[in-house]
């Protein structure tokens, strides 16, 4: 989405009392967003949020209010990052949301400056919440990034209110779409992250991705579906084709209006079970 779109969206959220915006926070200076990423509002390292590219290329019209009205079956939830600042969790609860994912880390150096109050605030309101990591496979190993994630809020506990962490695998906002890796190299990187995360927490993380990116950069390996639940990114009225190996999705990010909208593919009781087991 454009910087203008983000600004207007933030203003709309503030007007209805959903969010109190703050800055995106400090981040490492060694990475420069591509022109496409800058057009989508990513002006510095650390600012990439879930679906930064798909916001523009998959949803027509952009930020359609109709897409929000047509909530798919399941348990509604949202995901947030430093773009949202201080979230009015009470308002989100009143709007029917019951789970939230919060950006914690990116690469092996960035930690979100808003993670603490977003993560704690959602928990205090009663949300089942989890953390997500924006992967940069060309900056360090999957093992290193899994450690960074767990060390900075991405862990899991069987308390019934903490979701397993999510690994955000998507278009590179700082360079080549597949981060300069072959499909074989990308599969190795992802497996290293998954295995390290499981060793640290006892759970495999959820994988967030768009089918188009996954098929291009990871390929047809079906083994990931046996490890990680799928969080599908697709802004449309139906989930469409899933990435290779997954026959269904666990989470679906289906809209960005007025904040990223998601559903859990099941009941609230099953979501609580998923958080616990």
From TrEMBL:
Its EC number is 3.2.1.17. It is found in: Secreted. GO terms for molecular function: lysozyme activity. Residues 25-48 are annotated as: Disordered. Transmembrane segments: none annotated. Residues 1-26 form the signal peptide. It catalyses: Hydrolysis of (1->4)-beta-linkages between N-acetylmuramic acid and N-acetyl-D-glucosamine residues in a peptidoglycan and between N-acetyl-D-glucosamine residues in chitodextrins. One of its GO terms (biological process) is killing of cells of another organism. GO terms for cellular component: extracellular region. InterPro entries: GH (IPR017853), Glyco_hydro_25 (IPR002053), Glyco_hydro_fam25_subgr (IPR018077). Pfam families: Glyco_hydro_25. Its main location: secreted. SMART domains: Glyco_25. This enzyme has both lysozyme (acetylmuramidase) and diacetylmuramidase activities. PANTHER family: LYSOZYME (PTHR34135). Belongs to the glycosyl hydrolase 25 family. This is lysozyme. It comes from Janibacter limosus.
């Amino acid at each position: 989405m454009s910087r203008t779109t983000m600004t207007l969206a933030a203003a709309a959220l503030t007007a209805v009392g959903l969010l109190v915006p703050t800055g995106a926070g400090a981040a490492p200076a060694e990475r420069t967003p591509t022109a496409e990423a800058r057009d989508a509002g990513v002006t510095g390292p650390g600012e990439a949020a879930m679906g930064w590219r798909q916001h523009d290329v998959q949803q027509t019209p952009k930020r359609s209010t109709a897409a929000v009205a047509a909530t798919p079956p399941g348990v509604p939830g949202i995901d947030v990052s430093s773009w949202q600042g201080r979230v009015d969790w009470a308002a989100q609860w009143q709007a029917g949301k019951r789970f939230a994912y919060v950006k914690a880390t990116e690469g092996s150096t960035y930690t979100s400056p808003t993670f603490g109050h977003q993560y704690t605030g959602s928990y205090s309101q009663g949300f089942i919440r989890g953390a997500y990591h924006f992967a940069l496979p060309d900056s360090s190993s999957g093992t290193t990034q899994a450690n960074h994630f767990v060390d900075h809020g991405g862990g899991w506990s069987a308390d019934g209110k903490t979701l397993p962490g999510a690994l955000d695998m998507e278009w590179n906002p700082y360079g080549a779409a597949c981060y300069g890796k072959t499909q074989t190299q990308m599969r190795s990187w992802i497996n290293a992250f998954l295995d390290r995360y499981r060793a640290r927490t006892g759970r495999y993380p959820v994988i967030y991705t768009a089918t188009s990116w996954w098929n291009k950069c990871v390929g047809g390996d079906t083994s990931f579906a046996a490890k990680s639940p799928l969080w599908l990114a697709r802004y449309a009225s139906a989930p469409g084709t899933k990435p290779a190996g997954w026959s269904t999705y666990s989470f679906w990010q289906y809209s960005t209006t007025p904040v990223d909208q998601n559903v859990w593919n099941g009941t609230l009781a099953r979501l609580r079970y998923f958080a616990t087991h």
